[in-house]
Amino acid sequence: MSSSKNHPEEDLDDMLDADDAAEEIVDGETDDIAMDSDNEELILHNDSIAFFDQAQDSLFAIAQHPVHPSLVAVGGSAGEDDNAPGAGWLVDTSAAQSRPVLPASFASDPSAAQQPKSTQLESLFSLDGHTDSINTLAWTLPQGEVLVSGGLDGRVRAWKTDVRPGAGVKVTFLGEAQEVPEVNWLAPCPPPSNPNTVALGASDGSVWVYNIDPSDAANPLQIVQSYFLHTMSSTAGAWTPDGQLLATISEDGSLYVWDVWGAAAAKNVVSENGMTVVSMTGEDQRFEVEGGLYSMAIDPAGGFVAVGGAGGAIRIVSLPRLSASTQSKSQARGRTAPKTSADPTTGGQILAALQTQSDSVESLAFSVTSSTPPTTLLAAGSVDGSICIFDATRRFNVRRHIAGAHEDHSVVKLEFIKNTWILTSCGMDGVVRRWDLRGGSTPGPTANAASDAGLVKEWKGHRGDGVGGGVLGFVQGETGERITTAGDDAVCLVFEA
Fold it and tell me: How many helices (H) and strands (E) would you count in the chain?
């Protein structure tokens, strides 16, 4: 209990007078500004036609069924704790109601028109069993019979998905495998000759290929191959269009192209290790990317692979031609393949070394346009917020550099609408944007740098600014009519083009 000895008598004059203490302060007599609990006003803008908000934390992964594009899987964390389990869901985006083409002001009775509301999507099925975040999702090809999830717990889990038109979808858990510390990526093998096959890359640098047999209840996940040449985390992987070769990259700056099915060995086109047709590491100074490789994409004709990494560096490397059909497709499109890739034994040639952007290249995407003559475009998205477009038919000259495409926030993903000039992008600013790379918008009173760069539309609704927000992935089908996103703000949104 305090003592009066601690309050000298001379200090009593400085205490609040009793009359002052009883004085009331009337509302409106202060200059205080009302603020919310975060001491700032939130201005919300939502262009979505539907949303799914049952996730408890960030959604890291999203995948779209290859035959039924309205069926979308999302996955992430089931909580903010470091030891929170992973969680995922299946949703049907066809339930989203389209918005009117014209605004309410164009209605015959504008006062009676109601503001359109977003449709709340429900979960068709919950993906469980992961003890850490779901980091990647993929449906097997070509029919999407199996949904595969990869987690930061090192687990690979598989569910058989039977889509019954008019009767929903039946999901059956098949089994799981756990051979690695963390799963970084999944890539399904495309051709019907090897159905339900998926490759994965792990944090320990290993690469695994599984065949999933839904009819084998005892051993549904069967290991086809495993590789251990990467010395650091494997960051991305992609199959050639014919599914004969698998290319993978790593934080150690290496690129390996694996002869998974022995097609190259049959043509005597393999490295001394007997596993790869292309082996590129930092020991070759022409290929070296100090800081590692983080993104990759393969030319739709299968002629070369683009890999991107730290400092904005991109390397273009030729791939061997293992089948005459691959080469004939390239010629049929009107493209002239680089001379270095015309012979099956010449894979592994560095066709170009590019560096236009100032920070790490996080996403790469190819498109072969249906124009006459066809044009092969390579789009690169960087942590510096820019998008750079290269013309592969003209020695990878820079066609367009969109500085500040997502302001100063990282570009997370790029994807072309198939065989078009139309590119979709998302970033940590929480915005999805669409670009027409044939040219900018018609100049007008509202023209700005973005529209001049080819911006045709943007969609907002996610929290941005890189703090507890951003778009971490999207799917858009082949036509791009609807875009479904996975957000760092734990929300999945559906936008209509």
Answer: 4, 34
